[in-house]
Amino acid sequence: MSLKDSFTRDEWFKVMTGPGRAGAAVVTASPSGLTGLLAEAQAIAASVRESVSSGGRTPLMEAMAADLLGKAPDAKELQEMGGERARNIEEAKAQSIEGVRQAVWLVSSKASPEDAQAYRDMLMQVVERTAQAAKEGGFLGIGGEQVNDKERAVMQELQSVIRGPDSGASLSPSLAPSPDGSGNSN
User: Fold this and answer.
1) How far are the Cα atoms of 20, 71, 77, 99, 136 from residue 74, in angstroms, in the given order?
2) 136 Cβ partners below 8 Å, 6+ apart?
3) CA angle 37, 41, 47 (to 5 degrees)
4) Residue 126: phi, psi to the nearest 5?
5) Residue 142, strand partner residues
6) Could you say which DSSP state residue 177 is in?
7) Complete DSSP assignment for 56-119
8) Domain layout of the chain by residue ranges
9) Beta bridge mates, 145
10) Which of 129, 103, 106, 135 is nearest to 36 (CA)?
11) Which parts of this chain are annotated as the region Disordered (predicted)?
12) pLDDT tens string for the chain (186 positions)?
């Protein structure tokens, strides 16, 4: 029996979509323009690809890699498993965070501690890289800040969901506000 067999079809869908939902929560916190959105989507995909293809990966990462390389589900199947569509950006953010919460719980309850840790690490990598992928604010790439307050707030919420409310871990120093509170490093 493979690790994937420990999950129902719906549960596995939630596990597989957890990283995308983590990235989507950051994106919806402060939507960028088209080029920013593309950069953020690429950051999500690159983070997942790196996590599931790295050396020494866990059985969960192996199973996820196999599914990512396998046949994609058809559109109707995705629609059935996807749940209710968000009516606005706040609902989309809330649904994304809840999807991450469910995915983390499923992996923590059905996989080994090593798998659960690797999954949480992947989710945090997705969150951080998505936030860093595009500047927020400014005009035509001039000005703005790499990670704004709205993104930082969602990142803190996701960190609590992923690592636990008492994790004590903090976000990467580059994602924390600068001493003057502006978020700019200069």
Assistant:
1) 18, 9, 5, 21, 34
2) 30, 32, 36, 144, 145, 146, 147, 148, 150, 151
3) 145
4) -60, -45
5) 139
6) P
7) T--HHHHHHHHHHHSPPPPHHHHHHHH-SPPSSHHHHHHHHHHHHHHHHHHHHHHS-HHHHHHH
8) 3-175
9) 136
10) 135
11) 158-186
12) 678 999 999 999 999 999 999 999 999 988 877 888 898 999 999 999 998 888 778 999 999 998 887 766 666 665 666 667 778 889 989 999 999 999 999 999 999 999 999 999 999 999 999 988 877 666 665 666 777 888 899 999 999 999 987 665 555 544 544 444 444 443
Rounded Cα distance, 159 and 165, in Å: 8
Structure-block tokens of residue 160: 């609590």
Rounded distance, CA 80 to CA 148, Å? 35
Q: Which two tokens stand for residue 138?
A: 């400014």
Spatial contact of 92 and 86, defined as CB atoms under 8 Å apart:
yes
Which two structure tokens, joined as six digits, stand for 50?
Answer: 């790196």
